[in-house]
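Budget justification, computational time. The allocation requested in the original proposal was used primarily to generate structure tokens for proteins on the priority list. As evidence of use, we reproduce two of the resulting records. The first is shown immediately below.
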Amino acid sequence: MIAARLPTLANVAEHLRDDEIHVWRLDYHPRDGRGPLRAVLGAYLGLPADQVALADGTHGRPSLAGGHDPSLDFNWSHSGVHALVAVGRHIAPGIDLECLRPHPRALAIAERYFSAEEAAALLALPPAARSAAFLELWTAKEAVLKALGRGLAFGLDRLSIAGTAECPSLLRLEGDNAAAWQLRRLPIAPELVAALAWRGGERNIRFGTLASRG
């Protein structure tokens, strides 16, 4: 993986390469709905934001509606006032973002919904470290499920994450070859936990931040 900073959206959208994934960080306000997402995608499609048509899949994953560039795919996630948008060609990226915060029930949730190996790993940690580790597992699982086009109903215990906090890996994915997947931790900010997943070969990840509109 090569992480690089992106210049402004307008300067790079038309140059998205097949061996890249662009990840944009932007402010999020619920009142804006999917407007900021459409603005990002419009830059890649060469369209005004209000002409970007989205469709929701069976399990809620948004996608570009028919008529748009079929090679382009995306995913987005928001938490608090922050959002991330991942854009790539010829792959279906999955991205998940959470604000770092205490989770007093992290172990209980993991023991009920995660794999036995993941729950055991959390149990082995000091209590003070469990909240961050729980969110690292959660975002990694969500990123894979979103790339897969499935929701939480798929079952969080049907996939297992191993490795370190900085370098997670998909150890098991029921019904699929886990080795065919890429999973990356995104170093966005100390107060944010984020992960990116896709099925396919290595790609260069390029980061950018869109200026706040105030």
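The second record produced under the same allocation is shown here.
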Amino acid sequence: MESTPDGISFRVGQSTLHFRAAPAAQQPFYHIAFAIALQQVDAAHAWMATRAEILPYAADAPIADFPNWRARAFYFHDNNGNILECIGRATVPASQGVFSAASLHGLCEVGLALPDVAHDCEEIAATYQVPFYARGPRLADFAALGDDEGLFIASAVGRGWLPTHRPAERHWLKVGFEQQQQPFELELS
């Protein structure tokens, strides 16, 4: 962890997550997911439950099952109200030993609140060479771009984020990533 007057940074697996200080009148929130191995979802859920309140996916299901994505996930808030997710994917190798913070492989999803999902996603796909996610969906108010290693989860402004259904809000966001071995930065304001 590194803290400066302008923000705070965390190293999570192969990724660095940086939050910058927001103006006092704003309370931005984001949706971010961390990659874990599919076979470690239950252990990760138990580990996280001792550190944060788990947000139930449904009344009878604390863990979401996404068979089309070959994934399972659970959600929780951080201390600033961000909606965080641990998503286990079949493509992520399992860590050795007991689940711990070192078992987080890095960021694998970043939520984008967009005014016009269909149009804005087409622009992102063309500008940054990021394809629509092959496993979908591709709806008027929701779409996923990328692959199993990293996704932009595009939600229409005002559409509810899982599992809280809190309406997506657009706040400043910058994501640095590589696509086809070329570095990019996507910035939304």
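A brief technical remark on that second record: The chain has two helices and 15 strands.
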